[in-house]
């Protein structure tokens, strides 16, 4: 079954969320074996380019992608992330340690597997 | 008054099909259509450059626009009918480049994987217009997400102070009628999502603009300024979309020639064939008396601080007013000057009251009505007035009857409850 993962930025405004989505998508594409990464709009009538990162997992391990996400969070000033994987959802809040963020991201990516 | 127009944006997006929206094409065409209408339009067919849905890159579109503009300006010289205004209309998607404040706009050339390199930035267009068409007033009608963010690019070299708070732009400017300059009416502020879901298959912003330009407003003069259009637009959008309304933002600079948003530009259909009354003109002057801002901007959510703020610009509160009155005197004669002086005395003796007015007009309509009712500032004779006139009169009464403190207290309570 294809693994769709959505990543959103619950604490960012619309404009900032779009920038974060662009940047994270770029980072994820740089990782080996990530699979497809696109950005979608929350509403088809929004006159913007979208702020939801949609990833279809490729051959990369959940741990390597989670590490990439955790590193990106640290470099981008600790934005909060909501990762939806199937029916499961995990929010990575700012204020957590780098290891905690990595573990949460890994858990989110492994859910449903 | 000859007006040129340029239309930009994308419809088919061959390199990024996910950007296609069925409202974009009708929006661009209907807006240019109403401005070029044979009966009451302000743009001649030859004076419209339609680059909407053009497949060329942005630099190539700029070169095409430059060539066309030079031709139109030459035509103006040859025929003795020089253009005075240029309107730039854009409809499409707006977005920010990651890790920067650069606001970009999508065009057909925009590529999904190289968006920044293949999209449009208004700064290049504005640079060209300033260079090639410096004597012209430049008006931008921007219909995109975060549209007001592009205004920074339009005004950057004017030494303008554009104060940005959280997602907002603050601006004040004088009211004199300028011969040149720039003003932008944007569908959304720099942090808001514009909506392509308007009635009649156009964007929300376009739907409102079409209504305003098509119907006009009886309390305005024979022609409407961009500022008056903004005021009416907000009313129309609120009535049509309620909580889903995206608040339009008008931004104009305080450059060396003054602002241009007050220049009567668009025909007012509801006044067609009639002579503007003194009352309508006084209402316009009254707008000036709001301290360099008309109520359209005073009411705008994008404005977040009182106009007297020293950080906003170099123009002192009274300075813009004097210039405004002088401009109106030349246009309207002494009897209106007297009326303006009276209103000036009523509202502007105390600069602090201007701040109170400013705060009042930022409140929601229901809050304003509640305050007017609590302080008993309305009278039966007010019923024939427009909503705007009623509020102005109520404020004048509050001041005249010494209710300023109560007014400020109630405004404070209303602000706290927002």
Please provide a written account of the structure.
The complex is a heterodimer of chains A (113) and B (418). Chain A contains three helices and five strands. Chain A has helices at residues 14-30, 62-75, 98-110, and strands at 4-8, 35-40, 52-57, 81-85, 88-92. Chain A has a five-stranded antiparallel β-sheet, covered by helices on one side. In chain B, helix 2 (58-79) packs parallel to helix 4. In chain B, the strands form four sheets. Chain B has a six-stranded mixed β-sheet with strand order 2-1-3-6-9-11, sandwiched between helices. A two-stranded antiparallel sheet of chain B has the order 4-5. Chain B has a domain at 2-273: Rossmann fold. Chain B is 42% helix and 12% strand.
Give the secondary structure arrangement, pairings included.
The complex is a heterodimer of chains A (113) and B (418).
Chain A: E1 4-8, H1 14-30, E2 35-40, E3 52-57, H2 62-75, E4 81-85, E5 88-92, H3 98-110
Antiparallel strand pairs in A: 1-3, 1-4, 2-3, 4-5
Chain B: E1 2-9, H1 24-35, E2 48-50, H2 58-79, E3 83-91, E4 94-96, E5 103-105, H3 115-118, H4 122-132, E6 137-143, H5 151-155, E7 163-165, E8 168-170, E9 181-186, H6 204-215, E10 223-224, H7 226-241, E11 249-251, E12 266-267, H8 278-289, H9 295-298, H10 317-332, H11 334-348, H12 351-361, H13 365-374, H14 387-400, H15 404-416
Parallel strand pairs in B: 1-2, 1-3, 3-6, 6-9
Antiparallel strand pairs in B: 4-5, 7-8, 9-11, 10-12
Q: Quick gist of this model?
A:
Chain A is of the alpha+beta class and 113 residues long. Chain A contains three helices and five strands. Chain A has one domain (9-110).
Task: Indicate the CATH class of one domain in chain B.
Answer: Alpha Beta
Quick check: average pLDDT of chain B? 76
Total count of strands of chain A: 5
CATH third-level topology of one domain in chain B = Rossmann fold
Low-pLDDT segments, ≥5 res of chain A: none
Number of helices of chain B: 15
How many β-strand stretches of chain B? 12
Count of all domains of chain A: 1
CA-based shape of chain A = globular
Largest interface: chains, residues each:
A-B, 16 and 31 residues
The secondary-structure class of chain B comes to alpha/beta
**Helix fraction of chain B by DSSP (H/I, runs of at least 4):** 40-55%
Q: Please tell me how large the radius of gyration of chain A is.
A: 13 Å
Q: Major beta sheet of chain A, specifics?
A: 5 strands, antiparallel
Average predicted confidence as pLDDT of chain A: 89
Largest sheet of chain B: 6 strands, mixed
Strand content of chain A: 15-25%
Shape of chain B: globular
Strand order of the largest sheet of chain B: 2-1-3-6-9-11
Helical fraction of chain A: 25-40%
């Amino acid at each position: 079954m294809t693994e769709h993962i959505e990543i959103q930025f619950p604490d960012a405004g619309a404009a900032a969320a779009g920038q974060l989505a662009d940047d994270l998508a770029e980072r994820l594409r740089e990782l080996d074996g990530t699979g497809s990464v696109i950005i979608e709009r929350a509403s088809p009538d929004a006159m913007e380019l979208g702020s939801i990162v949609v990833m279809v997992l490729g051959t990369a391990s959940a741990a390597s992608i989670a590490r990439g996400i955790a590193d990106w969070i640290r470099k981008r000033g600790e934005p909060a992330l909501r990762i939806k994987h199937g029916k499961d959802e995990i929010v990575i809040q700012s204020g957590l340690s780098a290891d905690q963020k990595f573990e949460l991201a890994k858990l989110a990516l492994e859910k449903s597997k | 008054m000859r007006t040129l127009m340029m239309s930009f944006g994308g419809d088919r997006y061959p390199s990024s099909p996910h950007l296609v929206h069925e409202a974009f094409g009708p929006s661009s065409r209907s807006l240019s259509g109403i401005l070029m209408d044979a009966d009451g339009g302000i743009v001649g067919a030859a004076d419209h450059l339609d680059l909407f849905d053009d497949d060329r890159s942005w630099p190539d579109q700029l070169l095409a626009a430059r060539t066309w503009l030079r031709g139109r300006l030459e035509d103006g010289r040859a025929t003795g009918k020089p253009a005075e205004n240029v309107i730039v209309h854009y409809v499409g998607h707006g977005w920010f480049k990651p890790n920067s404040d650069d606001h970009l706009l999508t065009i057909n050339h925009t590529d999904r994987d190289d968006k920044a390199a293949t999209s449009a930035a208004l700064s290049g267009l504005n640079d060209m217009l300033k260079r090639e068409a410096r004597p012209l007033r430049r008006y931008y009608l921007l219909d995109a997400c975060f549209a007001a963010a592009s205004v920074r690019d339009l005004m950057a070299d004017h030494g303008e102070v554009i104060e940005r708070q959280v997602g907002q732009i603050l601006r004040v400017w004088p009211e004199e009628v300028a011969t040149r300059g720039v003003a932008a009416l944007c569908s959304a502020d720099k942090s808001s999502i514009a909506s392509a879901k308007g009635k009649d298959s156009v964007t929300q912003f376009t739907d409102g603009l079409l209504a305003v330009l098509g119907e006009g407003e009886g309390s305005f003069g024979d022609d409407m300024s961009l500022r008056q259009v903004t005021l009416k637009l907000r009313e129309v959008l609120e009535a049509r979309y309620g909580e889903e309304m995206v608040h339009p933002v008008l931004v104009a600079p305080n450059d060396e020639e003054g602002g241009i948003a007050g220049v009567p530009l668009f025909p007012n259909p509801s006044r067609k064939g009639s002579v503007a009354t003194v009352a309508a003109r006084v209402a316009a002057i009254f707008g000036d008396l709001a301290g360099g801002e008309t109520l359209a901007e005073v009411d705008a959510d994008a404005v977040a601080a009182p106009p007297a703020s020293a950080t906003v610009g170099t123009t002192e509160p009274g300075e813009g007013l004097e210039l405004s009155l002088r401009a109106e005197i030349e246009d309207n004669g002494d009897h209106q000057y007297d009326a303006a002086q009276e209103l000036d005395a009523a509202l502007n003796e105390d600069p602090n009251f201007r701040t109170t007015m400013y705060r009042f007009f930022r409140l929601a309509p229901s809050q304003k009505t509640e305050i007017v009712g609590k302080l008993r500032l309305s009278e039966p004779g007010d019923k024939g007035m427009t909503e705007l006139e009623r509020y102005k009169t109520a404020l004048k009464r509050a001041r005249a009857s010494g209710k300023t403190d109560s007014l400020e207290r109630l405004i404070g309570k209303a602000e706290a409850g927002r």
